[in-house]
């Protein structure tokens, strides 16, 4: 009997020490040394994540950022850019006379948890009822022409950032929404400059919106070096270049502490459809983008608890 009592006392002591140690590990850091106020902050704490995530890469261009020749040469090959690096810089300098010369990014803080919802355009969002959950996040990133009107119950109502390029632009953004340009040509900078002011004039065969409404003070421009990093490190050079949606997802990993992902992947019939339109081409896939690789990477990030992936129905 005494032996059992002693064993129980030892077990209680070990349990108490373990619980105390766990508490020490979780709460011993002073508040101002913690990365964020989330239950779990994104960090480089496992080999798989370290292999892919590089916090030093700047997601956005700024007036004082110098793009390297190597990155420019990679970027210019994406869609047949014909200009040189000097022309790129001059065109970008003109744009920075209109839009902020440095990005408006919510910095990490030990007393705040930056939550981010990345909302893709997949048909699997239909009847998902994710809308209230999406709207609960601090940062809500939508991609290209992703719509909210008429789909509020499934996709929410708020948008803090919209990532798009000229061919996928919307004609009007809310005054509180950041327009995030994903540039694939130097002329994309000229397009944005014109579209935000007097109207863009271009060759007739380039079908883009000539004028858009957006808050010029909230414009941000994705860095081609960031685009290359996503292609090299996250997709291991699969496909020609990342999709806008996947760029948005990795961007969220860089600017938020907790990331939730909605509306990615094929619908229940295996088609890469949009939730707001009827799919006419039943064989539509992901074009130049490595859709399957991107989807598997999202699944792995969910498995590694670096984000929460809501797959829809």
Automatic annotation (TrEMBL):
GO molecular function annotations of the record: beta-D-galactosyl-(1->3)-N-acetyl-beta-D-galactosaminide alpha-2,3- sialyltransferase; beta-galactoside (CMP) alpha-2,3-sialyltransferase activity
InterPro entries: Beta-gal_alpha2-3_sialyltrans (IPR051757), Glyco_trans_29 (IPR001675), GT29-like_sf (IPR038578), Sialyl_trans (IPR012163)
Superkingdom per UniProt: Eukaryota
Cellular component aspect of the GO annotation: extracellular region; Golgi cisterna membrane
Reactions catalysed: a beta-D-galactosyl-(1->3)-N-acetyl-alpha-D-galactosaminyl derivative + CMP-N-acetyl-beta-neuraminate = an N-acetyl-alpha-neuraminyl-(2->3)-beta-D-galactosyl-(1->3)-N-acetyl-alpha-D-galactosaminyl derivative + CMP + H(+); a ganglioside GM1 (d18:1(4E)) + CMP-N-acetyl-beta-neuraminate = a ganglioside GD1a (d18:1(4E)) + CMP + H(+); a ganglioside GA1 (d18:1(4E)) + CMP-N-acetyl-beta-neuraminate = a ganglioside GM1b (d18:1(4E)) + CMP + H(+); ganglioside GM1 (d18:1(4E)/18:0) + CMP-N-acetyl-beta-neuraminate = ganglioside GD1a (18:1(4E)/18:0) + CMP + H(+)
Transmembrane spans: none
Self-association state and partner proteins as the record states: Homodimer; disulfide-linked. Homodimer formation occurs in the endoplasmic reticulum.
Protein name, entry field: CMP-N-acetylneuraminate-beta-galactosamide-alpha-2,3-sialyltransferase 1
Species for this entry: Perca fluviatilis (European perch)
Organismal lineage: Eukaryota, Metazoa, Chordata, Craniata, Vertebrata
């Amino acid at each position: 009997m005494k032996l059992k009592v002693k064993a129980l006392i030892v077990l209680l002591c070990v349990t108490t020490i373990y619980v105390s140690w766990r508490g020490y590990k979780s709460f011993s850091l002073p508040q101002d040394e913690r990365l964020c106020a989330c239950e779990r902050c994104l960090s480089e704490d496992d080999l798989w994540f370290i292999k892919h995530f590089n916090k030093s890469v700047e997601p956005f261009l700024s007036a004082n950022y110098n793009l390297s020749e190597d990155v420019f040469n990679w970027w210019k090959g994406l869609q047949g850019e014909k200009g040189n690096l000097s022309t790129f810089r001059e065109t970008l300098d003109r744009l920075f006379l209109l839009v902020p010369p440095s990005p408006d990014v919510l910095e990490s803080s030990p007393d705040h948890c930056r939550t981010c919802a990345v909302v893709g355009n997949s048909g699997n969002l239909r009847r998902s009822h994710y809308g209230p959950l999406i709207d609960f996040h601090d940062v809500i990133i939508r991609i290209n022409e992703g719509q909210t009107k008429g789909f509020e119950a499934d996709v929410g109502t708020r948008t803090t950032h919209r990532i798009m390029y000229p061919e996928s632009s919307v004609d009007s953004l809310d005054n509180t929404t950041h327009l995030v340009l994903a540039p694939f040509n130097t002329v994309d900078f000229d397009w944005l400059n014109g579209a935000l002011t007097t109207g863009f004039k271009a060759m007739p065969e380039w079908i883009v919106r000539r004028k858009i409404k957006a808050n010029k003070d909230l414009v941000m421009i994705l860095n081609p070096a960031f685009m290359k990093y996503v292609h090299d490190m996250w997709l291991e050079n699969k496909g020609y270049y990342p999709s806008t949606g996947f760029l948005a997802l990795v961007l969220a990993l860089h600017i938020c502490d907790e990331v939730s992902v909605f509306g990615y992947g094929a619908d229940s019939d295996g088609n890469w459809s949009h939730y707001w339109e009827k799919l006419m081409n039943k064989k539509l896939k992901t074009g130049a983008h490595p859709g399957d690789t991107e989807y598997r990477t999202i699944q792995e990030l969910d498995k590694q608890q670096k984000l929460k992936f809501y797959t829809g129905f």
